[in-house]
Every structure is written in structure tokens, then in C-alpha cells.
Amino acid sequence: MPEKKYLIFLGCVIPYRLASYEISARKVLEKLGIELVEMPTFNCCGYPMDAINHDLMITLAARNLCVAEQQNLNILTLCNGCFSILNETNKMLKEDKKLREEVNKRLKEMGMEFKGTIEVKHLVHVLVEDVGFEKMKDAVKKPLNDLSVAQHSGCHLVRPAKYVGHGDDPENPTLLKNLIRLTGAQCLDYMDETECCGNPIIGVNEEVPFQMAKEKLDHVRAVKAQALITVCPFCHMMFDLNQPRIERAFNEKFGIPVLHYSQLLGLAMGFSPEELGLNELRVKPIELLSQVH
Amino acid sequence: MSETQEHVPSVIKAEEMDPKFKYKMSKMHGAEKIMLCFQCGTCTADCPIARFSDFYRPRKIARMVQLGLKDRLLSDEALWLCSSCFTCVDHCPQGVEIAGIVRVLRNLSVKEKGTMPLVYRELASNLLKGGYVYEIIESRHKKRVEFGLPPLPKPNLEEIAKIFKVTGSLDMLENVKTFEKVKS
After folding, report:
1. Can you give the residue ranges of every domain in chain A?
2. Residues of A with Cβ-Cβ distance to B155 under 8 angstroms
3. Is A52 in contact with B85 (Cβ distance < 8 A)?
4. Nearest chain A Cα distance for residue B98, angstroms
């Protein structure tokens, strides 16, 4: 029997490019007793629209929240961006009566009303708060004791602190680190762990994000981490999909595999690399896998 | 021409300044605390973009808002370099939400100058056409079946179009002029 039920909000990046995150997340969540229900109807969370029209963003987000309210289910997101926007909008609409009235006026056009009855959580929060460390540790069948990795929590899992909640420290995030450590792997500290991946501005400028990501990969390499672990598809794209381009731009070879946390956890739970979509990664984790199996 | 560039004219003419601009800004969600900025420079010092850009300086943006240099700000393409990491928001000792101010300025520049980076128009038109900001091509749907993933949730395009309409976004997209890349 599933202990907890969530409406899974995939966002846009995962369906577009990162099935490996979804595949692995569904596998581990099912085994950990979290039941996922599909969104009956969907639109983008609204995040990319905030820059051009804040009202458009809020209304798009609010519509998704209303869909979840109608299902009477909390939302689980895999993407930091979706989490940030849906969670922030949910809290703003719950707290700000005037804003809620304004947005509800717009939602009325589609027969919807924001009531403020659900919560929004990221995968990390569901694992930490609903499954819990003890149960997760019990589920680890093949501890990854020989692995040393580094983490990138990403900005929108922890900032802005005013809205995020869930108790992580934005200046020194530890939720993901602790989740990594329970797999048996070491989680190494490195320089500037909280720096942004740069991907949100890649559509208007490539130079700056490439320099930001290159510096991150430099720091990860400096501590000899065998992989970088992410929990956001957008950050993942920057470090994995774009890694060959970054290597070409700076004439350097990194070859650092970037795994979704759900893949790392899945390996520790005994799933095969194929079951977790590890062959879908751009930077192939060949050496890492040779130490796991 | 970017006004946060180093060669910004050092002389600001009195007639360029709109004394009411900061009050208008402070009524917008996210920019409420603009008047409290005392120019300490924490935002710029901790900004991951400012480290690699010659033009993007959040402290300067805050000061320009206080000075009412509206036209310069709204024509400044460097506004689009903020990655919305919210480091400035979390670090500001005065509680000024700098990233919120930048977002308000971007919204205003779209509305009043009628321009935005091309990528945003593309994302918005994908969203209108298919519910996702990226076009999900047929092969992706087929791959989901191979991977044993459930079908993607369907968008309600009629309602999405309504949301665009009631927020004034349809007209905005129709008339907007776009630019491609922003210099860093």
C-alpha cells in the first residue's frame, strides 16, 4: 500500500530532454512507497514567463495549483524551477488576500478558484520528510561505499529563503548532502557550492553561463569528485548536456558524469543502470559504474 | 546602448530624472523596498553574473531606480542578464529584493518599450501552441512508451489562451520587437 500520494508535476524540461530523471525518480519513489498520480491537465509552471509578465506567470502557476486542489493532492516536482514558482505562488496567494482576489477574478473565466488547500514539495522534501532517512537507509541494498561525489542543490531549491521553507540553509545546503551520504557515497565539499549553474540566461548570452559552469566543474574536479549530483533538470542540462560544449569553449577536458540524485539512490537500492536511464546521460559514467557493480 | 556599461556618461541631467519613478516602483510586487537601498554593494559583490559580466551591476540598477532614470533603465539590455538565483535577495541587509526589482524592470521594458529577447517570445509561443515552453516532438512521445513512462499530461490550450488574453499577454506578443543576444 502506498503511504503517500502526490500529483507529479513534470514541468517542461524533463519531457523535452531529460527522461532519465523521470525514469529514475519514478522507480525509486515507487519502491519507497510514494504513489504518483498524473496531472489530468497541464501547463508550464509559469517560471519562464515571469521575466516578461508577472501576472501571466502567477495565473499560469495558479491554474496548476487549482488543478491539484481539485484532485485534493499535494504537488511533487522534480524541477527546482517548477518547485520555486508553484511554491512561491501558492504561499503568496494564501497570504495575500488582495492578490488572491485579483487572480481568482482571472481564474473565474475558466471556472476555477484558488482555495489554498494544498502544498508544493520538491522530490528532496518528499524523500526527507515523507519517506525519512531511516526508511531510505533500509532501502539501500548496495551501499556505494567506494564512491566520492559532489552535490549541486541549485538555487531554486533553497532561494529565496523567505518562500522556500523546509528548513535547509541556503548558504550551506545540507538536505541533498545527507541524502547522498545515506547511499554510502561520500559527499565532498568544494569551493562555491552554492553558485548558480548559469543556465537561466543561456538564451540571451552564452559566455557568462559557460564561464559559471566551467568554474563549477573546475572546483568539482579539484576535490576529485567522481560525479556531480543534481536535483534540477535545468542545472543538469547545463553540466551534462553542455559539458562537451564547455570543454570545447575552454579547450579543456572534464569528463565529469552528472547524475540525477534519483539515479545515485537507485543504484544504491539495487536497480540496474539501464533501469535508471544512466545510458541516457551525455557524459557516460563508465568508470563510476565499474566501481558500483 | 547599455547604461550599466563602464563608459556610462558621468553627467546625469536633471530633466532625465523622474522623481516619481521610485514611488511607482515601490508599489509593484517585488520592488516594495527600493527606497531602503543604501548602496552597500552586497548585491553586486555576491552576484554570480556580475563576476563574469562587464555590464551587469545590481547595485547600479537599484541606484538608477532611486534616481528615476527610467528611460536609461528600460532600454538597458543588461537587465536580461540576471539569472534569478536570488542570492542578492537573500543577502541584502536591507531586505531589498533586487532580483524582484530587475524582474519588475524587465516587465516594464516589455510593456513600455515593446521589446524582449527573442528566446522569451519563442518560449511563450510554444506555450500557447502546446502547453509546454519547448516543443515536444513526436519522437519524444514514442520514446516515453519505450521507456515505460505514462503519456504526458495534455494541455488545455483554450484555457492557456484565455490566461494569455486576460493578462494582456496576447497583444504584447503580437506587437513586441525582439533582439537576440545580450552583450556581457
Report:
1. 4-122, 134-292
2. 41-43
3. no
4. 11
Burial (Cβ within 10 Å: 0-12, 13-18, ≥19) of residue A39: buried
What kind of architecture, by CATH, is found in domain A134-292?
A: 3-Layer(aba) Sandwich (3.40)
Among B166, B177, B181, most A C-beta atoms within 10 A, so best to mutate, is B166
Residues in chain B within 8 Å Cβ distance of A43 = 127, 131, 155-156, 159-160, 163
| Contact criterion met (CB < 8 Å) for B159 and A38 | no
Asked if B90 lies within 8 A of A200 by C-beta distance, the reply is no
Fold of the B14-113 domain: Fumarate Reductase Iron-sulfur Protein; Chain B, domain 2 (1.10.1060)
CB contact under 8 A, B89 and A204: no
All cell numbers assigned to A243: 559539458
User: pLDDT (tens digit, 9 = 90+) per residue, A112-121?
Assistant: 999 999 999 9
Contacts of B103 in chain A (CB under 8 A): 50-51, 54
The model's pLDDT over A39-74, given as tens digits with 9 standing for 90+, comes to 999 999 999 999 999 999 999 999 999 999 999 999
184 residues of chain B, pLDDT tens digit each: 455 555 556 789 999 999 999 999 999 999 999 999 999 999 999 999 999 999 999 999 999 999 999 999 999 999 999 999 999 999 999 999 999 999 999 999 999 999 999 999 999 999 999 999 999 999 999 999 999 999 999 999 999 999 999 999 999 999 999 999 999 9
Pairing verdict, β A34-38 and A148-152 = unpaired
What pTM, to 2 d.p., does this model score? 0.96
Please tell me the distance in Å from A161's CA to the nearest CA on chain B. 6
Domain ranges of chain B: 14-113, 117-179
User: Are B103 and A170 within 8 A, CB to CB?
Assistant: no
- The CATH code for residues A4-122 is 1.20.1050.140
Across the interface, do A49 and B124 touch by the CB < 8 Å criterion? yes
A4-122 and A134-292, same CATH topology = no
The three three-digit cell numbers of residue A88, written as one number? 512561491
- Report d(CA A241, CA B25) in Å as an integer: 39
The answer to whether B133 touches A14, Cβ cutoff 8 Å, is: no
